[in-house]
Amino acid sequence: MNAPLRRVGVVVIVLFGLLFANLNWIQAYKADEYRTSDYNGRVQVAEYERRRGNIEAGGTALAVSKETDGELTFLRTYPGGAKYAHVLGYKPVNLADTGIEKSENDFLAGTSDKLFANRIKDMFTGDRTAGGNVLLTLSPRAQDVAYDQLRNNNRGATKGAAIAIDPRTGAVQALVSMPSFDPNPLASHSTNEASAAYNKLEQDAARPLRNRALGEVLPPGSTFKIVVAAAALENGIGKDTNIPAGSSYTPPTSGQSITNAAPSICPQSQVTLMKAVTDSCNTGFAKLGVQLGPDVIKKKAQDFGFEQEDLSVGRLGEGGHGVAASRTGSMENPDGGADPAALAQSSIGQRDVRMTPLEGAMIAAAVANNGSQMRPYLVRQLLAPDRTTVYDTANPRELRRPVSGQVAADLRDMMVSVVRNGTGRSASINGYTVGGKTGTAQSAADRADHGWFIGFALDSDGNPVSAVCVVLEEAGPGGSAEAARIAGQIMRAAIADPGGR
Amino acid sequence: MTAAATPAASPATAGERPGVRLARSRRNSELSLLVLAMALVAAYGAMVEANVLDTVTPDFWVPAAALTAVFLGMHLVIRFLAPFADPALLPAVALLNGLGVGFLRRLDLANAAPADRAELATFAGIGGRQLAWTLVSVMLAAGLLALMRDHRSISRYAYTLGLAGIVLVMLPAVLPASISEINGAKLWVRIGSFSIQPGEFAKLALLVFFAYYLVRKREVLSLASHRFLGIDFPRGRDLGPVLVVWVISLLVLVFEKDLGTSLLYFGMFVATVYIATERVSWLLIGLVLFFGGAYLAYVLGSTVGGPFLNFSVRADIWLDPFGDPYNKGYQLVQGLLALGTGGLFGAGPGGGQPLLLPEVQNDFIFAGIGEEIGLFGLSALLVIYLLIVQRGLRAALAVRDSFGKLLAGGLAFTLGLQVFVIVGGISKLIPLTGQTTPFLSAGGSSLMANWLLIAVLLRVSDAGRRPVTGTGGKVNRPTGGPPEQLHGAPTEVIRP
């Protein structure tokens, strides 16, 4: 009987070997997945035991954690309420986190590799050091103005966005999406309350949770003419060259005629490029687009950042808010042949052309910054819990060079002319040179037009200090002028309080 | 098989009796190992208090000291009643039992209001109750050692125990669910606030019967009649008893809604038949029958439903626990998350959150402990279990009579199989079942039954290691004389 007894011993060893192998699988290979699983209640309790770091801008705390008596020790609060909601995002107990709260979560929560030394220190002292602090580039004053002016726009528009960036660095000075929402209920420790608040926002037809400044793509209307003008300048047309215009233009193969916004705009058969931009001459740019061809215009739009799908705004080069790709559309027949009607409409920012507000601001910024487009970012600095050690300071980087310095200078002259003599007068600021371009975009037959403005401000030495894009959705007639006025206000605030770079 | 036949005829040769060349009692080794184990238990208690209370109370050592007193008593009983028993068994079991008490006390600390934690009485809560059960169980084990001076004496009660075993197995099945069902498994008999798991004791009783029956019938059962694919298969009529046990275990599976118990009984039976007959065919028949039956129950459960439904639901949870993580799969998911959170080193004793685990004091105690001691700690626990099982099998190898071999081998294997079934269940290796984790889980039935099991192993190992001649000290090895088996061992059948 001893031989089978020995074999039974081997069987038991094999069974225990299976247990051991399986425990290795669970506790070593799958450990990280289980540890951070959404179903794992330990994650939250542990996460809320440590004071989460602040998110700040210009010395103002925008997201802070307060101690409570509950099971979860710290409650996340947002003193700015709805004003900063789309920048900060939110950090809820039971829902998905978003925004900077999500992209900088490791550092804020204190679990980042950068804070390893702090955690070692905690092991010896028994304390729970707070998480790290995140300093943003925002100018609180510009953000205030953008938020208030957008909400109180004189067109009564309920949806829109405004974004201001520093053309020299790409630092975001203000970012507002309208309508906004109060993130505080979402961070409630009562998960029922948080879920109810979230469901209400999620079901709101105005989609307040959507970050329109980065995620909404709309037809850009006449603001797209800056891209077409840049293509023209690079193809032998000077700013004072006469281009064909007229009160109406019917592209070949199409029965639909293109007209101007008012009969007074470029009725003559020839206007200078400068004049065409200043007065936003639709017929001139439609003919210009057909003359240049789809490939030239698409190429120039891509040079300015259209079609980029992987751009994000957060820490420089490391995640953050995703940005929707701006698109030019095909501008051609489905079979690839020429379609002058599509091309003509695309050249004035209609048809299938779609642009995010950020892309609008980046076009203006590139023009203002001598043709150099900087990578946009929101996180200026990562500051240790003790507020003395700096872990990461943003080092501005050029994203691309859409146009040469000479072309940029010509475009600047034309855009300044728009604000001085043309459609963008309400954006002007005393003591600063302001340039820009308005846009009125048709969205659908039964909806009012969107009003756009993209622009920049130069100080007395000619240095760019701010570039901005404002869009008022379905604002109707006068929407672009109101957008220009709001843009001027935002830039004025950004000049007074430049925020951090 | 044939190679083993020759030494089997003379089981007392040196190669078959490991560790008994110099028959020393090794009681002092047992004592020092026991002290070491209890020091570990005391250290565990101190670490728990340091983590949960942020301070170590002056009384942290009291539960460990109480346990030490109990186990020292057991050590003295062994010293007098079974002086040649295996010295590793008691310390290994004492360590598991002590850690179990320590972890249950840790649960009490977590359950108590923060203000009351420092003043938690030694015998309060489930930890204190487990401590009391330990005292009772060890006394029972000592009593069994005292009553049963020779393990062969229990074979006299084999049929009585066999009948009692079957009654105990079937009892929860026939009782109404209000008395017998807890958490979907009908394994209990509840009388007032007490609940007993009769299956825990049935296991022992049935094994005594199996061992006795198989020793009587092993010649018949090992007679081969059909040779197929190079394996000898038994005659049809000899399959009778196997089929009876198979039907009983499937009835358990269906009516007590418990795969683990059924797997345990059947595995126990197949293992003892195999040990008795040395026929691989019995293993194959057993495995095919069991897995065929389980698969059939699964298919019936998902198509017909009825009494088979519970099993198929459990099998589905096993296949995809995260498919329904908040309801059906909740227990298993939380168990896996606890183990995963523990990772390699664990959160430290008292550093985890075992209260997030349902049934952490019973079925999921291994996961709850695993969160705090990590993969390394759990591996150590598995090694301790393995040590107990292998020591039991060693006792079976060393003892001279067939009944003792079958009894010790069967018991040791059953203990190992039970650990496999429950640990495999909570770690998603096999479908989860309602087994207790031997010596760790809260509950008197399991603790008492397993301590009785250890008492039997101690008794058998004492018989195996006891010197054949003389009253201790060195063995006078027979040189060329008659084989030792003449000294009291029953005659072994020499198979052709």
Number of strands of chain A: 19
- Main β sheet profile of chain B: 2 strands, antiparallel
The radius of gyration computed from the alpha-carbon positions of chain B, rounded to a whole number of angstroms, is 23 Å
Spans of at least 5 consecutive residues with low confidence of chain A: none
Radius of gyration computed on alpha carbons of chain A: 27 Å
Helix content of chain A: 25-40%
- Computed structural class of chain B: mainly alpha
- Individual helix count of chain A: 18
Q: Give me the CATH architecture of the domain at 215-376 and 397-496 in chain A, please.
A: 3-Layer(aba) Sandwich
Fourth-tier CATH superfamily name of the domain at 215-376 and 397-496 in chain A = DD-peptidase/beta-lactamase superfamily
The span between the termini of chain B is 11 Å
CATH topology descriptor of the domain at 215-376 and 397-496 in chain A = Beta-lactamase
Structure description:
The complex is a heterodimer of chains A (501) and B (496). Chain A is of the alpha+beta class and 501 residues long. Chain A has a domain at 215-376 and 397-496: DD-peptidase/beta-lactamase superfamily (Beta-lactamase, 3-Layer(aba) Sandwich). In chain A, 37% of the residues lie in helices and 19% in strands. In chain A, the strands form 6 sheets. A 6-stranded mixed β-sheet of chain A has the order 3-2-1-4-14-15, with no helix packed on it. Chain A has a 5-stranded antiparallel β-sheet with strand order 6-5-19-18-17, sandwiched between helices. Chain A has a two-stranded antiparallel ribbon with strand order 7-10. In chain A, β5 and β6 form a beta hairpin. The radius of gyration of chain A is 27 Å and the shape is elongated. Chain B has 496 residues and is mostly helical. Chain B has a domain at 152-319. In chain B, 62% of the residues lie in helices and 3% in strands. Chain B has 16 helices and 6 strands. Chain B has helices at 2-9, 27-52, 62-81, 89-111, 125-147, 158-174, 177-180, 198-222, 240-255, 259-277, 280-303, 309-319, 330-342, 365-398, 402-426, 444-465; strands spanning 181-182, 185-186, 189-191, 194-196, 226-228, 231-233. Chain B has a two-stranded antiparallel ribbon with strand order 1-2. Chain B has a two-stranded antiparallel sheet with strand order 3-4. Mean pLDDT of chain B is 82; it is low at 1-20 and 470-489. The chains are: A alpha+beta (501), B mainly alpha (496). Chains A and B meet through α1, α2 and α3 of A and α1, α10, α13, α14 and α15 of B. Chain B: This is FtsW/RodA/SpoVE family cell cycle protein. Chain B: Keywords: Cell shape, Membrane, Transmembrane, Transmembrane helix. Chain B: GO terms for molecular function: lipid-linked peptidoglycan transporter activity. Chain B: It is found in: Membrane. Chain B: The chain crosses the membrane at residues 31-48, 60-81, 88-107, 127-147, 159-179, 191-215, 236-255, 261-277, 282-301, 364-386, 406-427, 439-458. Chain A: It comes from Micromonospora zingiberis.
